[in-house]
Structures are given as structure tokens and as C-alpha cells.
Amino acid sequence: MRPPPSPDLIASTILNAFHSLPARSKPRIRPDGSREWTTLAGIALEHEDGHLTCASLATGVKCLPTSKIPLAQGLVLHDSHAEILAIRAFNHFLLHEAHLTLHPPSSQATYHSPYLSLRPHTSLTPTAPQPFTLNPTLRTHLYTTEAPCGDCSMELTISSQADPIPWVSPESSPPKTIRGRGYFSHLGHVRTKPSRPDAPPTGAKSCSDKLSSKMYTSLLCTPTSYLVTPALPGAYLDTMTVPGSEFSEVGCERAFSPRGRLEPLNSTTNAPDMQGGYSFRPFNVQTTSSTFLPFVFSRRAEPDAPAPTPSNISTIYIPHSTQSIHEILISAVLQGRKAFSPISTPALALLGASCVSKMRLWGDTVVIAEELLRSHPHPVVHSLVSFLVGSTKGEYEYLKSPEPEDLVGEGEGVAGIAPGQTIRLARWTAKEVVRGVLARAGGGGGVWVRNGGNGFGLVRGGEGGVKVKGERKGKR
């Protein structure tokens, strides 16, 4: 097994891509002289020769309140923390590579992606039906300029307080899901995203919890998991790199190590054929060197300067091989568009949706599925595509939660279940396993409360995500 690239090289790969973006994509200096801060995160892909490619990057520190989730309808992003946006953008990167594989650029007769490829028909089975597979030598790395919120950064949070008292007065036992940074003494617990004490509550889980769950469920979002098998190492993080000042060895050991709160997953069966390709793959946490320059837009205050304030914009950048996608978001939609407009139609709202929104990724997946049906006929592919196209008649939840008939005879294999149902059941099972482990960690209540917001149908029209040319950005 080859050693990972140096943390400084991974960080530089993401930072160099970020610095190439225009100033409007970045935090600004306010009229009173105070500066804004944000978190930057990005996915770097390592090739067999050690070369690194930036697959995606994002900035952001905001999150949608629980009260707004039913209104989002797959068009407004629930979680705009940088790490989560970067992972969603990585999924767009993969879907675009799949699209190019089926429809090469006009200048090329064929397109051989260095990241994924079509699986031979002989390898497609009802229990492993995804038509695409990642390059087996590919390794995936995450860089983030701040420690992920939640459990891994609790020691950092505690040490930064002049008076380390939780926002909520301790009770005899904490709630099943702890809000933000409350209950400092309860470590290992599932937490929601942090926010001001007077801010509307959010049900979105912390980045620590989401990254922990992806050690078992992979980086693939639900739509992508129907096209790309999660059985290869590249579908999981190999390393996460943070600045040395943002690293707590104790916190990361507890949150991410197979010896910490995820230890029960060591006993799970890691046979991909039995788990739909899912397996427990912990990542290593590493830090940049002491001489590595800090991120210029970090939250750390400069001497004799006003305390920085969080930026209200998010930036998404996906440097595709044939084109780049660059989005600027405000309030979880494209800049210049309005979220939750009472006079907007679904088609108009789609124009404001990010390329990494649930609606866009779902639509992209269906487009690719329809292309597969025309160009690569095969009984397994036909059945899987029929399932995905059929999903457009229902709600997004159809892709996420198994039907009652899927659960009949659970534990006795998936014989007789159609390929699409097989994928859905395997992913749902993997999520249930890891969420159960996390919810019980630290003496928690054993319940992972879902954020919801999946009761919407597919809206098609406007700009298609995989076919977008050039930049996508809102009106200024």
C-alpha cells in the first residue's frame, strides 16, 4: 500500500485552485474594517503515480433551520458547511465523468476517464448492478481549513472558551441529539450543527458525525450510488488534512478512529458482496506542517484587529476536465435567486438550485441512466434504469428508503430483488448500521433523528447539471 501524499501537498492542491477564483467568490473586508471568515474544504484525488487533482472545493459555514426543511423541496441546500458541499461537489464530478464516458467531447472519438469506467457486462449482477466503477488505484483525500464541527473539535471548542460552560445548563442526561456545542462534558455524542444560542435550531448533523458515517456509507450521495459502485477504495476518504492549530489528537481519535466511538464497526462483515459494496474504511487524520501558511480567510483573529465575522456566501468550484463549474450561493441558492419565493414555480425555482442540490444530482443521474439504456443494453442495466426512471414518478424518498417488500426475509440475501431495490436496501442498511453505532456512542439514546425533507418529486427543465457549459452563477 503506497504512502499518502504529504499533507502540505494535499492542502496546496486545494488552496491553489481556490486562489484562482475571482474575488467575488471570497470573503470581503466590511466597511467598518472588519473582515469576514469562512471554511474552505476540498477533495483531492491521488493518481497511481502520486499526482494530485482537485476534484472539488467549497466554502461555507451556514445551515438551513429545521423549520425551512419542508420548504426546500430538493432545490435549497440543507447543509452549506464547506466539507459537506465539497463532498456533494465530488459527486457532481463523478457524474460528469460518467456522462463524458457515454458522450465523449466532440473533439474525441472516445473518452477514457482517469477516474471511473464502465464495468464489463459480464461483471454486472443483480447484487452488484452499478454500471460504473472507480479506478482501483484512485485515492481520495479531504482538506479543510477548520476542524470539522461536532465531536472531533470539542476539545478545541472547550479550550477556546474563557468560561467553558455549555450554552444549555446540564441536566441529569443530555437530549438524544445534542445541539451544537452544548453539554461539553458529554463527548462522543451525535450533535447538530453549531449556531448562536438564539438562532433557529437545525436538525443537520455535525460534520464530525457525517464524516464518521461516510466511513461506512462512502462519499457517494444517494443518486450517485445507483450508478457507481461503492466497493472501491476511492469511494471513501483515505486521509483528512487539517491545520495543526485545528487538530485535537484526543478528539479525532474518539470521533474517527476505529478505536474510538466507531469501534463496534470493526466487527461488521466487510465482504463487499454481502454488503452491497459497503464496508468500514476509516480515514487517517493528518496535519499540515508548522511552516505551512494559514488560510487567509480563517476565523482566527489578527492582533489589534476587529474579530472576523462569518461570510454569508458559499462558493462551489468543480474543475471538470472539459469545463469548470463555479457557483456563488447565498441562502443556499444561486446568488441573485430567492429561496422560498411564494410566487415561484418549480421550474423557476430550479434555475436557482445549485448543481449539487438533491434535485440537480437526481436529475443528472436519471439523464445518465437514460443514456445507458440507449447505448449499453443489458438485462441488469435495463432493470436498474427502469427503477431510476420510475423513481421520477414518485418522491426522492423512494430512492432512500426501502419498501416493505424489500425487507421481507432481510438477512437471507437479496435473491429475487430487482437491482434498483438491491442498491436501495444495501445503502439503507449501511446507514442504519453506522447511525445506530453513532447514536449509541458516548451513552447516547440510540436514535439518529433524520433531518427529512425528501418528499418532493423530480423537476426537469432549465439548465441540466451534467450538460452545463462554462460557469453557473447567479445574477449579481
Please describe what this structure looks like.
It contains 13 helices and 14 strands. It is α+β, with helices and mostly antiparallel strands and 476 residues long. Helix 7 links the parallel strand 9 (237-242) and strand 10 (284-287). The longest helix is centred in the C-terminal third of the chain and has 22 residues, at 419-440.
Summarize the structure.
With 476 residues, the chain is α+β, with helices and mostly antiparallel strands.
Low-pLDDT windows of residues: 409-413, 462-476
**What string gives the helices and strands in order?**
HEEEEHEHEEEHHHEHEEEEEHHHHHH
Number of strands: 14
- The number of helices is 13
Helix content: 25-40%
Shape: globular
Q: Strand percentage, roughly?
A: 5-15%
Task: Supply Rg.
Answer: 21 Å
* Major sheet strand order: 10-9-8-2-3-12-13-14
| Category from helices, strands and their pairing | alpha+beta
**What characterizes the major β-sheet?**
8 strands, mixed
Mean of residue pLDDT values: 87
Q: State the end-to-end distance.
A: 48 Å
